[in-house]
C-alpha cells in the first residue's frame, strides 16, 4: 500500500500538475471537450445503449488496453463530483451550495481531460431522496468495485471511526457479494486473482489526527468487517489484502484552505497521470484486461449480474418492521386456522369421505386470509403481498394432505361401490356383461370426478389427474377380474352341460360293447362340444372378449370337456365295473341263446363249445375297451397337447393349468391291466361253466317215477286210517284251517318268528336242566371214601413237607366237600 508523503504538519506534500504521456498512445488524440459526458446507468437502473458511440466520440474505441477506469464512492454532498472535476478535468454536475440536495443521479461517465481515463461519478450514498431504499447504493457500489481499477472512497475526517458515516455497512455488503459473485468462480478455476485499489480520500483534514492513525483506524474497521463475512468455499482463509490494495490520502478544507486544497489536488492528480512515480495509481495489476471496444458489453454484463443478485436486496427499516409484523399476524392467523382444521384429520384417517370438506376448507382458509389482510395490509405493500402469498402457500400446504386423504378415501369408496354394483347385477338371470360394466364404470368415474372437484380450492395447484387414472385402472382391473370370473363360471356351466350330454350315451355304449362303441361315444361328444362352443360364443360377445381370449377359452373348454369324458370312461371301466360288464356280456352269450331265451342245460347239450365261444368273444372286448379308437377315421378327435402349445406350456410352468397329453389320454388301460382283467374274467367264467355242468348232473340223479307209485301203495293204509278216524280227521281239518287263516291274513312271518322264539326258549331251558342234572356228585362206596381220605392225608403231609401250603388247603376243602 502506497501512501502519499506527509509534510511536517501531517498533510501530503504539494505536487505539480502534469499530464502522463505514458498512458497515452503514440499519437495522442486531441483533447475532448470537458462537457462531454454520458449517463451510464440512469435512475431506473437501466444501462445506456450508447456507450459505444461515446467511446468513438472520445476516440477511445481503438485504444485497446491503453485506457484506465476509475470510480468514486461516498456519501451524498461530500464533494465527489467536485473532486473528480479537479482531478481529471471532467464536467460532472456539482452541488449548488445554497441548497444541499442530490446532484448526481445514477452513474455518470466522462473521459478525463488530456488522458485516456474513463471516470465514473456514482450517486452518493445515504441521501434523503432515496431514504431507506439502499438497493441502488449497494448495486452501484458493487458495480464500481467489480469494474474499476481504482475506487476512490470520498469521506470527511470526522467520519473516520463511524460505521455508517464511513460507509462500512455498505462496504461489508459489497465485499461479501463481490466474493461470491465475482471471485469464487475464479478461485475454483484457479484463475489469477484480480486486485482493485481502494483509495480513501479523507476530506477537510485539519491535521489534529495524523494520517497514520486515521489509516490504522480504517484498516482495523475493514479487517473486522472482512473477518465477519460469510466466505464461499475455497476462500475461507483469504484476507482482505488478497483482493484489495489500499491507499490513504488527506485533503485540506476546500473553503477554509482553498489554496492548500487546490495544491493537494494537483499533487494527487500526478499520481493518476505520471506512470514513472512509485505511487502511480493505475498499475498494470489493477487493469481488468478488457479491450476498449469490448468495454460496453463487459460493463453491461457486470450490471446484469449485479441486478439479478438477490444478496443485495437487504430490507429497509420499514420493510423489516413490515416483515416482523406480517409474520406475527400470519402466525396468529395460521394458529387459529390449524386449530380449526384439525378436526378433519381423524375422520379422514379412518377412511370416511366428508361430504362438505371442500366448503369447510375454503371457509377456514378464507377466514385466515381475511384476518391477515385486515391487520397486515397497513404495512409495506410489497412485504404485505409477499407475506400474503407465503401465508396462502402455507395454508394450502396444510390443507393438501386433507385433499389427498379425501381423494384416497373417495377412490376406495368408489371402487367398492363399483364392485358391489357389478356383482349385484351379475347375480341376475338375464344380463349383458359389457352393458353392466360400461354403465357402472361411467357412474363410478362421474362420482369420483364430482367428489374431487368439490374439494379442489382456488389459488392452488392441486390436481387429481393421477388419482383419476389410478381409479380408471382399478375399475378396469375389477372389470377384468369379474369378466374372468364370469367367463370361468360360464365355461364351468358349459362344461357341466357337456358332461351331462355325454354321460348317458357313454354309459349305454360301454354297457353294450360293440365294434362301433367308440364311434357312438365320439359322435355324442362332438355334438355336445359343438353345442357348447356355440353357447360360449353367444355369451362371449357380451363380455367383449378378444379373439385371442376366445381361442384360449375354447381350447380350455375342449380340453376340459375331453377330460370330463375321460373321467366318465374311467368311472365306467374300473376293475369291478368292467368285470361286471364282461360278466354280463358273457352271460348274454353263454346262458341265453340267439333269440334271448334262457338255456336249460341238458345232458346232450355241447356246453364246452358254447362256453369257449362265449368266453373268447367276451375276452375280445378287452382290446376294444383298452383304447379309444373309432372305426371311422373321420370321427377321431384332435386336441393339442401342452407340449404342442407354447402358451399352454407356459401356463403349465406357471401352475395355471395341468399338463395335458392327448395321445396318452386315448389309452384307457395298459396291457398289464388288460392281462389281469382277462385272468379274473376267466376264473369267473369257469365258475359259470362248472355250474352248468352240475345242473346237468342234478337232472340225471332225480327220483324215478315208479317210486311215487310205491310210496302211494305203502302209505294207503295210513291215509285211510286218518280219514276214518274222527279225531285224526278233525285235527287235520283244524290244522288245515289254521294254516289257511295264517296264509290268508298274511301272518306267516309273525307265526314263524314266534315259533322260532319258542323253540329257542325251549332249547335254552332244556339245556340248563340237563347241565344241572349232570353236575351233581355220584355216591361212592365206604371203602373208596376211606381210601380217598387216607390218600388225602398222605398228600397233605407231603405238601407240608415240601412247603406247598396252598395245595394242602385246597385238598382239605375237597375232602370236606366229599364228606
From TrEMBL:
Region entry Disordered, spans: 1-34, 785-819
Segments in the Lumenal topological domain: 724-726
Binding site for GTP: 74-81
HAMAP family for this protein: Sey1
Residue numbers on the Cytoplasmic membrane side: 1-702, 748-819
Alphabetical UniProt keywords: Endoplasmic reticulum, GTP-binding, Hydrolase, Membrane, Nucleotide-binding, Transmembrane, Transmembrane helix
Transmembrane parts of this sequence: 703-720, 727-745
Molecular-function annotations in GO: GTP binding; GTPase activity
InterPro entries for the chain: G_GB1_RHD3_dom (IPR030386), P-loop_NTPase (IPR027417), RHD3/Sey1 (IPR008803), Sey1/RHD3-like_3HB (IPR046758)
Any one Pfam family match given in the protein's UniProt record, by short name: RHD3_GTPase
Compositional bias (Polar residues): 1-22, 789-805
UniProt source species: Pseudomicrostroma glucosiphilum
SUPFAM superfamilies: P-loop containing nucleoside triphosphate hydrolases
Domain spans labelled GB1/RHD3-type G: 64-286
GO CC entries: endoplasmic reticulum membrane
Compartment list: Endoplasmic reticulum membrane
Membrane topology, as annotated: Multi-pass membrane protein
Family designation: Belongs to the TRAFAC class dynamin-like GTPase superfamily. GB1/RHD3 GTPase family. RHD3 subfamily.
Main location: endoplasmic reticulum
Protein name per UniProt: Root hair defective 3 GTP-binding protein
GO biological process, one term: endoplasmic reticulum membrane fusion
